[in-house]
TrEMBL record:
PROSITE patterns: HTH_ICLR, ICLR_ED. SMART domains: HTH_ICLR. InterPro entries: ArsR-like_HTH (IPR011991), GAF-like_dom_sf (IPR029016), HTH_MetabolicPath_Reg (IPR050707), Tscrpt_reg_IclR_C (IPR014757), Tscrpt_reg_IclR_N (IPR005471), WH-like_DNA-bd_sf (IPR036388), WH_DNA-bd_sf (IPR036390). It holds the Pfam family IclR_C. Residues 65-235 form the IclR-ED domain. GO terms for biological process: negative regulation of DNA-templated transcription. This is IclR family transcriptional regulator. Residues 4-64 form the HTH iclR-type domain. Keywords: DNA-binding, Transcription, Transcription regulation. It comes from the Bacteria. GO terms for molecular function: DNA binding; DNA-binding transcription factor activity.
Length: 235
């Protein structure tokens, strides 16, 4: 098997940055991975140029390109298969549509969907793309990303408003969206791996006439419980 030391070191560094709960400095990476500091700086420069890592004041964090790689993995069959039973149970429990979405470029793409036995037809289905900044699924995904990665995905003039909305999403534990034509409302919660490098959103879509504060809390509780169980299973 071919051995490419620089590639092995780059992958090891990216893995360490992804698994860390805090930004990692070049010195930390050098010590923990036993890589010369000059080599660490050279590799970080390339990874930063490719947007695989992003530089912060106190170290490096995963960049938007690494999130895209994670999303590509999540689009694989294992995730869809793992999520299917939980999605079916949730769709039956709330008698609505349930979507699983991941980040693709600067949009959220629906991977798979299910619906309860008496639920109306879902307005969106697998393959559909939703705006990352304004859709519930998009905001749920963004709520798990570092500020630098968010800035790479959102237009500069929209960024302050989006960051403010994401603070509310994190406090609630879910994002909510009312359709422009007032026909549906959507609640989405983030599904995240322990390392933070793999992020998806599980969403519930219901008719607009079903919306009120009590139903929002009931559906959100069921959604967050499903997300927790699925996250535990994936991790």
């Amino acid at each position: 098997m071919a051995d490419v030391p620089a590639l092995r070191r780059a992958v090891a560094m990216l893995r360490a940055v992804s698994l860390s709960n805090e930004p990692m400095s070049a010195g930390q990476l050098s010590r923990e991975l036993d890589i010369p500091r000059s080599t660490v700086y050279d590799i970080l420069a390339v990874l930063e140029e490719l947007n695989v890592v992003s530089k912060r004041k106190n170290g490096y964090v995963p960049g938007p390109a690494s999130t895209g790689v994670g999303a590509a993995y999540l689009r694989s069959v294992p995730l869809v298969n793992a999520a299917a039973p939980a999605m079916r149970a949730l769709a039956d429990a709330i008698d609505g549509c349930v979507h699983l979405s991941t980040l693709r470029g600067n949009e959220a793409q629906i991977l798979t969907a299910d619906r309860g036995p008496d639920a109306p037809a879902c307005p969106s289905w697998p393959g559909d793309m939703e705006p990352i900044a304004t859709s519930a699924a998009g905001q749920a995904i963004l709520s798990c990303l570092p500020k630098g990665a968010i800035a790479e995905l959102i237009d500069e003039d929209l960024l302050p408003k989006v960051l403010e909305e994401l603070r509310a999403v994190r406090l609630r534990g879910y994002a909510i969206e009312h359709c422009d034509d007032s026909s549906t409302w959507t609640i989405s919660a983030a599904l995240q791996s322990r390392s933070g490098s793999l992020v998806a959103a599980l969403s519930v879509v219901l008719p607009a006439d079903y919306w009120n504060a009590d139903n929002e809390l009931r559906v959100a509780k069921a959604l967050k419980l499903t997300v927790k169980r699925l996250s535990d299973r994936l991790n």
